[in-house]
Amino acid sequence: MSTVDRRPSTVPAPASAPSTSVSAPASGPAPTPSQTVGPFFGHALPLTGGGDVAPRSAPETVTLHGRVLDGRGEPVPDALLEFWQAGPDGRPPAAPGSMRRDHSTGRDAGRDGVTFTGWGRVPTDADGHYTVRTLRPPAAAPYVGVLLFARGLLHHLYTRAYLDPAADDALLASLPGERRATLVATHEGGEAHRVYRFDLRIQGDDAQETVFLDFR
Amino acid sequence: MADTQPTTPDQKSIDAAMAALAGSGNGAAHPSRAYPPYRSTALRHPRQRLVVVEDPEAVELTGPVFGVTDVTALDSDLTRQHTGEPIGERITVSGRVLDRAGRPVRQQLVEIWQANAAGRYAHQREQHPAPLDPHFTGAGRCLTDDQGRYSFTTVKPGPYPWGNHLNAWRPAHIHFSVFGTAFTQRLVTQMYFPGDPLFGYDPIMQSVTDAAARERLVAAYVHDLSESEFSLGFQWDIVLDGPAATWTENAEDSRNTEQGENR
Ligand SMILES: [Fe+2]
C-alpha cells in the first residue's frame, strides 16, 4: 500500500464531514515539555513547495498571506508557520506527499502537483512575511488552522485564519468584537483565485493581539 | 537582531532570575511563554490568555499524513548524507512516540536538526567561529513504526555560545519536531544529554521550571543500545500532549460520553 491511513480499516471513509470522538487523557504518561524552535531550523524544516498546498491543477485556489509581528510591531523573520485544514469536501485529508523525497538522489522533490495533503509549512522571509496557496476550506470549518513557531517562543501558538466565516460561528461568536477581527482574513482581491491577508501579532494591545487557541 | 535591553546581562543576573522562577509553573510540563531569563521571549509572547476550545473540529483532531513518498531510508542516518564521515562521537538516539494515553503514535513523522560536533550549525546566520564539517548537514527525518518507535544515527552535537547574556552557552541538544495523530498534538522540543554541566546555566532548558518535567527532556544513556566498536546508544521517549480523534462507528454517541468524562 502506498498510502498511510490512520483510520482503523473497519471504519468506512466518511462521505461528508467525519464524526470523531475525543480521546480522554486517562492516567497516561506525562507529556514531554515544549522548547523553542530556535533560530537555526532553516537548513532542516523548510520544504520545496511547502506553501503550495493547492494542487497545480486546482481550478480555484485561495492565497493566504501576511506578516508575523512582535510586541513592537516589528516583523519576525525567524518564524515558521504550519497550516492544516480540511478540503472543500469537508474531509480531513489523509494523503501523504507533503515532503516528497527523490528516491535516487535523496533530495527534496517537492509535491506531485495533483495530491491535496491539507498541510503546508512556510518560514517567514526577512520581512516577516509568509504566503500559502491552498484550497478553500469547507463552509462547516471555514478556516485554515495555523501553527506558529519562532525563536523566542518557548511553546508554539495555534490559531485559525477564517475565510468568509458565517455570522454564527461558535468560536467567533464567543469573542468580543475587536478580538474576533484578528481571526478573520481580509479579502484583498480575486474571485477564482482569491487573495486574503492574515497577519499574526504575537503580542499587542488588547484588540490588536491575535487570538491564540488552546485545545483541551 | 534587536536586543530587548540596552546592556547585555551577565550570567549571575540570569541565574538570579532563573532561581526566582524555579518551580513557578505549578508542575506544568510546558514552559510559560513569558520567561524573562530567555530575553527574546519579552516581545514574543501573547499578553492575553489563550482562548480555550473545548470542542475542536474534526479537522483539528486529525493531522497530516506522511508516508513512503516523504522519507527515504537514508534520511535517518545523519552520518551518511555526504561522501565522507562527519567528525564526532557516533551515536544512536531512539525511543517511542506516545500520546498522553500512552498509545503509540504510528507511522508518523519525526524530524531532527542539530549542530555538528564542534557546536556549529550548517546555517548562514550562525556566527559561532567553530569549524563547519563538509560531511555533516545535521538534519534528519524518519517515520515511527507500528510501536511508535523512531531511531536516528548521528554524531553528538557540541555545546555552542549564544547572545542571550554574557558567556551564554547552550548545553548540547538535538532539536526534535514531532507530529501526533492530531494537529493539536504537535510538538517541537529539544533533547539533551545526561549529565551536561551546562543545564543549570541555560534559560531555555530552565524555562521548564518543574524539575521532573525538565528531566523528561534528558535522554538516557543505555549501554545495551551501544554497538560494539561503532556507536553509543541513547534512549528518549516522547509523549505528546493535546487531544486526538478516535474514529469510531458510533462517533456521535461516544463523543458525548467521552467528553463528559473528560471534564
Ligand atoms: Fe540549537
From TrEMBL, chain A:
<dbReference type="InterPro" id="IPR012786">
    <property type="entry name" value="Protocat_dOase_a"/>
</dbReference>
<keyword id="KW-0223">Dioxygenase</keyword>
<feature type="region of interest" description="Disordered">
    <location>
        <begin position="85"/>
        <end position="120"/>
    </location>
</feature>
<keyword id="KW-0560">Oxidoreductase</keyword>
<feature type="compositionally biased region" description="Low complexity">
    <location>
        <begin position="9"/>
        <end position="29"/>
    </location>
</feature>
<dbReference type="GO" id="GO:0008199">
    <property type="term" value="F:ferric iron binding"/>
</dbReference>
<comment type="similarity">
    <text>Belongs to the intradiol ring-cleavage dioxygenase family.</text>
</comment>
<dbReference type="InterPro" id="IPR015889">
    <property type="entry name" value="Intradiol_dOase_core"/>
</dbReference>
<dbReference type="InterPro" id="IPR000627">
    <property type="entry name" value="Intradiol_dOase_C"/>
</dbReference>
<dbReference type="Pfam" id="PF00775">
    <property type="entry name" value="Dioxygenase_C"/>
</dbReference>
<dbReference type="GO" id="GO:0018578">
    <property type="term" value="F:protocatechuate 3,4-dioxygenase activity"/>
</dbReference>
<feature type="compositionally biased region" description="Basic and acidic residues">
    <location>
        <begin position="99"/>
        <end position="111"/>
    </location>
</feature>
<protein>
    <submittedName>
        <fullName>Protocatechuate 3,4-dioxygenase, alpha subunit</fullName>
    </submittedName>
</protein>
<dbReference type="InterPro" id="IPR050770">
    <property type="entry name" value="Intradiol_RC_Dioxygenase"/>
</dbReference>
<feature type="region of interest" description="Disordered">
    <location>
        <begin position="1"/>
        <end position="58"/>
    </location>
</feature>
<feature type="domain" description="Intradiol ring-cleavage dioxygenases">
    <location>
        <begin position="60"/>
        <end position="138"/>
    </location>
</feature>
UniProtKB/TrEMBL annotation, chain B:
<protein>
    <submittedName>
        <fullName>Protocatechuate 3,4-dioxygenase beta subunit</fullName>
    </submittedName>
</protein>
<keyword id="KW-0560">Oxidoreductase</keyword>
<dbReference type="InterPro" id="IPR000627">
    <property type="entry name" value="Intradiol_dOase_C"/>
</dbReference>
<dbReference type="Pfam" id="PF12391">
    <property type="entry name" value="PCDO_beta_N"/>
</dbReference>
<keyword id="KW-0223">Dioxygenase</keyword>
<dbReference type="GO" id="GO:0019619">
    <property type="term" value="P:3,4-dihydroxybenzoate catabolic process"/>
</dbReference>
<comment type="similarity">
    <text>Belongs to the intradiol ring-cleavage dioxygenase family.</text>
</comment>
<dbReference type="InterPro" id="IPR050770">
    <property type="entry name" value="Intradiol_RC_Dioxygenase"/>
</dbReference>
<dbReference type="GO" id="GO:0008199">
    <property type="term" value="F:ferric iron binding"/>
</dbReference>
<dbReference type="InterPro" id="IPR012785">
    <property type="entry name" value="Protocat_dOase_b"/>
</dbReference>
<dbReference type="InterPro" id="IPR015889">
    <property type="entry name" value="Intradiol_dOase_core"/>
</dbReference>
<dbReference type="InterPro" id="IPR024756">
    <property type="entry name" value="PCDO_beta_N"/>
</dbReference>
<feature type="domain" description="Intradiol ring-cleavage dioxygenases">
    <location>
        <begin position="93"/>
        <end position="121"/>
    </location>
</feature>
<dbReference type="GO" id="GO:0018578">
    <property type="term" value="F:protocatechuate 3,4-dioxygenase activity"/>
</dbReference>
<dbReference type="Pfam" id="PF00775">
    <property type="entry name" value="Dioxygenase_C"/>
</dbReference>
